[in-house]
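Reading a protein record of the kind used here takes only a little practice. The record below shows the convention in full.

——
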Amino acid sequence: TKTHIEKAQNFMRQYRDPESRELKKLSANQFMDVWSHYDRDGNGFIEGFELDGFLKEFVSSANATDISPESLSGEMLDELKSCFMEAYDDNQDGKIDIRELAQLLPMEENFLLLFRFDNPLESSVEFMKIWREYDSDNSGYIEADELKNFLRDLLKEAKKMNDVSEDKLIEYTDTMLRVFDANKDGRLQLSEMAKLLPVKENFLCRQVFKEGIEAGAAKLTKDDIEKVFSLYDRDNNGSIENEELRGFLKDLLELVKKDYDAQDLNEFEETILRGVGYDKDGKISRKELTMILLALAKLPP
């Protein structure tokens, strides 16, 4: 039928109310369908031609029938894109990522909560505590059932748990895997979980440390090292240990590797700690941290 053909022409039109032309609330699965439709190369961003295609269809779907794409001139598209990106491209990278799309489209409220927009973790130390808690079989991965437990607790914490059925929870788990399981092995490795559960900042990305490390040891002052130490010594007991240590190593690893798993972190830990004659008590002292940072500063970029 004619309407069926029109729907096929504009992917977004099916999600608009036929009377009001408003966008309808999307379920988790529908949201993923929209995402997969426009993120054609599957790289986790809607960008370039994908973004142009999405914007054209998003705007023209407000009409009951297609206006010809030509009627949206290049100039209008550029203007539209710049207004649109100003409103929704939070990190100003010129692309739309999954969180930005989730803020733009009307979503089931519970599903939206899982994206933790306003609530990043304080640091990688907190991240590693959560990782340890939910990787209950210590496999080095968060499998689907562990992810479901995590999402259940996340919604419980947001006081929304009563509204969510087990079926919904399974749908959310599947959806989150579709979004964040980049290598499609059906579970989340460390770097994938780190995208689902972002940290406010990687302390080691602060300009002063980056510059210090890039410029060589001479630039790293005692103050800088003291700052790093106090950022990771969360319980102020004078040493960096357990999740504090693993949080520090995760931040370090992220400076050199984009995709990493628990095995990478373990090997990295061994390499780094062996390099400072680590005394195997499971703790790093100020002196050992100084040696690690100075050793890093000497490495070629």
